[in-house]
Design a protein that fits this description.
The complex is a heterodimer. By secondary structure, chain A is of the alpha/beta class. In chain A, 44% of the residues lie in helices and 23% in strands. The relative contact order of chain A is 0.19. By secondary structure, chain B is α/β, with parallel strands linked by helices. Chain B folds into 2 domains: 240 residues, Rossmann fold, CATH 3.40.50; 50 residues, no CATH class. Chain B is built from 11 helices and 8 strands. Chain B has a 7-stranded parallel beta sheet with strand order 4-2-5-1-6-7-8, with helices on both faces. Classes of the chains: A alpha/beta, B alpha/beta. At the A-B interface, α1, β2 and α2 of A face α1, β3 and β4 of B.
């Protein structure tokens, strides 16, 4: 069975990367290959990395409140680059109404604080768009 | 199937790499038809010695002068989960402004020696895709991480001034394979002493090349021009001494060995091996057991094509 590859990135001007690092490490413990890019990524950086690394999942961590903007931009670029078989998920401080809007826009899932790692990893395994 | 156009699109290149990493040997063989002969530079050194940063600084200058640069960053896989955190890109963010660079993060997937089983095949893909300068950043675990020597034309070994006394310098391993030695983070300790120690032991290589020793502070761009000069000089040396042909045959032999080893390792790590262990404990001659294991590898491989 092939390895599932996940990109974990922090877009924009948000330096709070502890959550993203903990998540990267925990997803490693779940057997995934996690490409961690660090902070201050532009949407262009993120989509380019997703292409070169041929990931199954893009995971964005946003705690700055700018989630509507960043997700919209990443979705646009994913569409432009035909990344329709890549999952886009996110985590951070996202209010319920924004969460619903993001899901409508095409984000696959938003995980709020308190979500367990097993919930995230089973979501990934159950929703992959590319066959294993 | 693969043709010339397959190498024009980054997405296709990336997909090809994934298929290779997942054991599709047909792709690995197809790629060989399109090799262009890129120069391959391996960088090794302990974790935290500055490999990613140095590659970023060197690549920036090379990209500015018109090169197309490929980078393979290798990080270890977890022996428990098989997963990995691949973090070499964190230091390479500033390369994102260039179109002509392709960076790929690789997990060792259980392989030791500093590279993954299929690193050679991935070098071949980047070469075929027209990246004329390819950097391989090894895992960075230490002294016997010398596999990269089989693939790279130029091996660069990073040292930092604060680690180890002079005994570390006379040991076998990494300090025998370097064409260029870089004492990085030179502002953080007795760099000149480190250089003196290296000068004492670094004799001319068998092929006549005298290893270079360069001081650098990669984050501040100090020493980068000198390193590029040394890389270029070594490349000229390699070409004028027909080392490239020899290297290609070494590279392909090494690649084949890794493909075979991967199959063997997989069998040896599966429960199949339990009964063989019992046989040996119960007095069966190891000559027969080892022969059986090797036959088993062949039989299993025959079944599934790519294991």
């Amino acid at each position: 069975m092939r390895k599932i590859r996940i990109l974990i990135a922090k877009p924009g001007l948000d330096g709070h990367d502890r959550g993203a690092k903990v998540l990267a490490r925990s997803l490693m413990d779940e057997g995934f290959e996690v490409i961690y890019t660090g902070i201050h990524q532009t949407a262009e950086d993120i989509v380019r990395t997703a292409i070169e690394e041929d990931v199954d999942v893009i995971g964005l961590s946003i705690l700055s409140g700018a989630h509507m903007y960043h997700f919209r931009r990443v979705l646009e670029l994913m569409k432009e680059n035909n990344l329709s078989d890549v999952l886009l998920i996110g985590g951070g401080i996202v209010p319920e109404e924004d969460k619903n809007m993001l899901i409508k826009m095409g984000v696959d899932a938003i995980f709020n604080p308190g979500t367990s790692i097993s919930e995230i990893s089973s979501f990934i395994r159950n929703n992959l768009r590319r066959k294993l | 199937m693969i043709d010339k156009n397959s190498f024009k699109d980054k997405r296709e290149i990336a997909r090809m790499m994934s298929r290779i990493e997942n054991g599709d040997e047909t792709v690995s063989s197809e790629v060989l038809k399109y090799l262009k002969g890129a120069r391959v530079i391996g960088i090794t050194g302990v974790p935290g010695s500055g490999k990613s940063t140095l590659i970023t600084k060197i690549s920036t200058k090379m990209l500015q002068s018109g090169h197309r640069v490929g980078i393979l960053g290798i990080d270890p896989s977890s022996p428990f989960s098989g997963g990995a955190v691949l973090g070499d890109r964190v230091r390479m963010k500033e390369l994102n402004k260039f179109e002509n660079v392709f960076i790929r993060s690789i997990s060792t997937r259980g392989k030791i020696g500093g590279l993954s089983y299929y690193t050679t095949d991935l070098v071949n893909v980047l070469d075929a895709a027209g990246y004329d300068t390819i950097f391989i950043e090894t895992v960075g675990t230490g002294q016997d991480e010398i596999d990269v020597f089989n693939i790279a034309h130029t091996v660069m070994v990073l040292q930092v001034p604060t680690l180890g006394d002079e005994i570390q310098v006379i040991k076998a391993g990494q300090l025998e394979i370097g064409d260029i030695y870089v004492v990085n983070k030179a502002d953080q300790g007795p760099a000149d002493e480190k250089i003196k120690e290296l000068e004492l032991i670094l004799k001319k290589r068998e092929n006549g090349w005298q290893p270079k020793i360069i001081k650098s502070v990669a984050v501040r761009n100090i020493g980068i021009d000198e390193i590029i000069e040394a890389i270029d000089e070594h490349w000229l040396f390699v070409k004028s001494h027909s080392i490239t042909e020899k290297k290609m045959s070494t590279r392909i032999k090494y690649m084949l060995k890794q493909h075979a080893l991967e199959k063997l390792d997989k069998i040896m790590e599966s429960e199949v091996i339990d009964s063989y262990a019992m046989d040996v404990l119960n007095g069966k001659n190891m000559v027969d057991v080892v022969k059986e294991i090797i036959m088993k590898v062949g039989a299993e491989y025959g079944k599934g094509g790519s294991v």
